[in-house]
Each structure stands twice: as structure tokens, then as C-alpha cells.
Amino acid sequence: MLSISRRSLYYQPVPPPPEEVAIKHRIDELYTAHPFYGSRKLTVLLAEEFGAINRKRVQRSMREMGIAGISPEPNLSKRALEHRVYPYLLRDVTAQAPHHSL
Questions:
Q1: What is the DSSP code (8-state) at residue 81?
Q2: 54 lies in some domain
Q3: Which of 25, 34, 75, 92 has the maximum number of C-beta atoms within 10 A of its C-beta?
């Protein structure tokens, strides 16, 4: 009648399993100590403690926690505007023979 589903009224969220909570706590500890570690390195370190663990699982946990490995951002090689730009001297020159000189 009120266009509200009964399911949304009676839904009780299920708490995460203790293993997942332990993995997230360990990811947080490792990330705090080494913020430059990404999901690949964390997967290797977690596999030593928790056994076989999937990289996608680590990625999902990191995404849920809002963390990402620190890495160089794009556009780091932009030219400095105060540097002089030299003209390209061979733009209209065609090579006539081997060892062609100007």
C-alpha cells in the first residue's frame, strides 16, 4: 500500500565472518607500515599468514577500506615552462644522398 517493500523493513544485516575481519585488520597494519604496497605485495604477505588468498579478495577489501598503494601519478614528465624550446632544424630538409650535410 505504501510502496515500501516488507523485505527492507525486516532485513537484518549479517556481520562479516571473523576471518574477513582478521584479514582486513592485517591489511590495515601492513598498509600503515608500508603505504606503497599494492594488492599484489599484500596478497603475498597475507598468503604467508592466512594460507591461499585471492588477489581479487585483497583488492575488494582495500577498495572497501578506501586505501590504495602510493604510486607515481600520471603527467610527471610535463615540460618546465621556463625552459627554452629549441626549433627543429631538419624539418624541411630531405636527405639527397648518404651522409647528406647541410
A1: T
A2: yes
A3: 34
Please check whether residue 43 lies inside any domain of the structure. Answer: yes
Among the listed residues 77, 79, 102, the one whose alpha carbon sits nearest the alpha carbon of residue 91? 102
Distance CA 100, CA 102 (A): 7
* Helical H segments across the chain, by residue range: 6-10, 18-33, 39-50, 55-65
Which residue is associated with the grid cell 644522398? 97
The pTM of the full predicted model, rounded to 2 decimals, is: 0.64
Virtual CA dihedral for 60, 33, 20, 68, nearest 10 degrees? -10
pLDDT in tens, 52-75: 999 999 999 999 999 998 887 787
Number of domains in the chain: 1
Integer Cα distance of 88 and 53 in angstroms = 55
Q: Which residues constitute the domain of residue 61?
A: 14-65
- Tell me, yes or no, whether 20 lies in a domain: yes
Task: Look at residue 45 and tell me if it is in a domain.
Answer: yes
Please classify residue 28 by burial: count the beta carbons closer than 10 Å to its beta carbon, then call 0-12 exposed, 13-18 middle and 19+ buried. Answer: middle
